[in-house]
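User: Can you recover a sequence for this backbone? Please restate the input before giving your answer.

Assistant: Of course. Working from this structure:
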């Protein structure tokens, strides 16, 4: 029986080898691209091979980040490592209940189809990593088309799966690749939001810090199963990073199917509410610190930007406590992570402008300041898919008459400052320090300044701040509720 099994395996490998040779023959041009279903006759009267026709339809989508505020992301793998490594990887994914997506090269599937079938049997997805993982950007349209098409054929033959997505070896793409992907009937070329290269001498703590910095909702994490020598050991760190912020791994297809379509900037009402305006001298502005009122109400406000780990925890606390706040976002961070900004807006909070790159307003020209504000307005508008709150907060709180008029001339007529400054951005200030400073400084109509930064103690202090202020009879409102 053992000899029979060995013979069967040998025969199977031989047949797969023949299949692979045929695939390579097609790729190198031994068969026409515009082929019919009728076999070619090898004689002098046979018709010449038809030239490949470049696709003129709509290009496939390119996806590196899925537009969603759901607390989900996808873990994907490129290539196919050796059998022992792949089985250990699958065991580790099972251990952490992670459903992943594997982009497999057609040649490796032809060589070891049992690995591909095992991936499927363990509940994971298989997609197209091209036939031989060569640099498609350097190939002619005909050859890159074949790389995708032949990989589709191999994967379908060996597993029964028709791939929906394509990823190149490095995740790069151009218009030809997107056209060829569409011509092959596939929905998208997939890149990634985070590529985990092989760790070198990093400690586990350094790895955790890196993952915390870049993990995000709607994100697509990519790992190369052949390059990454720490592959199996990375899975617990990745699972821990996602669990820490309360995010769940889902299949790539599920992530994409449940994601939304972002409207282009010009289709969003209010995208042009902020404009460059050289007529600054007479621009009227409103400067607000706190409201003179007998009502025991205060506004929590948050500046700058942070990782999902920091911002999502703040949003969770505000939701649990039933508090609406005002956020002033640094837009270069929003640009990298639009889903997080959208989550803030969906939470019912004010989303205001804190410039694009956080310069000290009094140390740049009025023209540069206006460029910062208008660019930030557009980035934030596109991210949250609606007009932002038309309140501006200057970085570091510094301003003068010239900057106030420059700001107002863009369309941001309200400059929103604050009167309670617990200096939570100072890392050495503990949660107790932050709470004490807020309780000491807060009055009726106060605006409290906090930050979205990582590695500070704001998240720890926030629940206590809310509870203590409520015990003093204060209610919480957004700045737009307080000032109109």
């Amino acid at each position: 029986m053992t000899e029979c099994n060995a013979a069967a395996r040998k025969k199977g490998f031989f047949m797969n080898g023949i299949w692979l040779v045929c695939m390579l023959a097609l790729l190198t041009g031994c068969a026409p691209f515009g082929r019919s279903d009728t076999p070619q006759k090898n004689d002098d009267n046979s018709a010449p091979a038809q030239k490949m026709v470049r696709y003129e339809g709509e290009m496939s989508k390119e996806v590196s980040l899925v537009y969603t505020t759901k607390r989900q992301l996808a873990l994907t793998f490129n290539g196919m490592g050796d059998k022992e490594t792949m089985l250990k990887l699958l065991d580790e994914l099972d251990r952490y209940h992670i459903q992943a997506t594997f982009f497999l090269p057609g040649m490796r599937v032809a060589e070891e189809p049992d690995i591909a079938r095992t991936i499927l049997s363990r509940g994971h997805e298989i997609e197209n990593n091209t036939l031989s993982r060569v640099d498609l950007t350097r190939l002619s349209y005909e050859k890159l088309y074949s790389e995708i098409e032949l990989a589709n054929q191999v994967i379908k033959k060996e597993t029964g799966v028709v791939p929906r997505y394509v990823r190149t070896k490095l995740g790069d793409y151009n218009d030809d690749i997107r056209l060829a992907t569409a011509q092959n009937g596939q929905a998208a070329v997939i890149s990634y939001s985070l590529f985990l290269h092989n760790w070198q001498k990093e400690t586990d703590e350094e790895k955790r810090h890196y993952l915390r910095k870049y993990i995000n909702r709607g994100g697509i994490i990519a790992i190369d199963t052949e390059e990454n020598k720490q592959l199996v050991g990375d899975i617990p760190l990745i699972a821990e990073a996602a669990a820490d912020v309360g995010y769940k791994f889902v299949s790539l297809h599920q992530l994409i199917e449940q994601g939304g379509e972002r409207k282009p900037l010009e289709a969003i009402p209010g995208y042009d509410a902020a404009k460059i305006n050289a007529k600054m001298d007479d621009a009227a502005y409103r400067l607000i610190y706190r409201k003179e009122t007998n009502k025991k109400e205060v506004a929590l406000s948050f500046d700058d930007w942070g990782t999902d780990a920091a911002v999502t925890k703040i949003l969770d606390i505000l939701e649990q406590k039933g508090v609406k706040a005002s956020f002033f976002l640094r837009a270069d961070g929003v640009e990298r992570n639009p889903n997080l900004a959208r989550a803030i807006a969906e939470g019912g909070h004010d989303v205001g402008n804190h410039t694009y790159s956080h310069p000290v307003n009094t140390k740049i020209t009025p023209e540069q300041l206006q460029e910062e504000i208008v660019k930030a307005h557009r980035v934030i508008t596109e991210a949250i898919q609606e007009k932002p709150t038309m309140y501006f907060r200057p970085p570091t709180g510094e301003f003068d008459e010239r900057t106030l008029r420059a700001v107002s001339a863009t369309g941001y007529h309200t400059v929103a400052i604050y009167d309670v400054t617990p200096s939570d951005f100072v890392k050495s200030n503990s949660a107790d320090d932050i709470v004490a400073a807020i309780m000491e400084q807060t009055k009726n109509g106060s605006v409290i300044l906090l930050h979205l930064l990582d590695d500070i103690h704001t998240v720890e202090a926030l629940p206590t701040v809310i509870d203590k202020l409520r015990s003093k009879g204060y209610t919480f409102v957004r700045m737009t509720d307080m000032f109109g």
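That completes the design. The two ends are 84 Å apart (CA to CA).
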